[in-house]
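Q: My labmate handed me this sequence with no annotations at all. I'd like to see what the chain might look like in three dimensions before we decide whether it's worth expressing. Could you predict it?
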Amino acid sequence: MKVKTFWSILLKVIGLFLIMKGVTVLIYSFSTLLMISSTVRQGMIGFALVFVLIVLIYLFILWLFVFKTSWLIDKLHLVRGFEEDKVETNIQLTNILSVAIIVIGGIMLIQSLPQLCQQIFTFFQMKDILKESQTIGLIILYFLQTCLGYLLMTNSKKITTLINKRAYSDSSNDNEQND
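A: Here is what I predict for the chain of 179 residues:
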């Protein structure tokens, strides 16, 4: 495996991990935006613009890490400083990405399933005390995370194919533009 391939794998795995963590951050941000909008009418446009800006920046970073790894490696000069151009391994990129997707999906599932159960339990406990439940948003969040973790684990080959197809089509377009 070439050093550039190693960095490509590492950056894609980091990108996938950012996706996993970013879902939580975006859902929390959106729920906070909804809570603020229900209490404060003034300044709502500003909050919404900041939220949209954060989402766009986040999506740009994900796009760089998952689909534009070659460009990122070149701009960050990650290949410099290695004496040899090859790192001896017999593992293919698709296998590493599949394993990384399965592991990330498993981590999401392991982290969110207990939280989902706890929030459902809290919901039913507090249902009689409070007429308005504050845990519905968290139940939805942890349900979505659990489903996403399960889907990542069961569809890792399809996701790997999508990432590779998209990354190679982007890199071939870049090579054509440079010629």
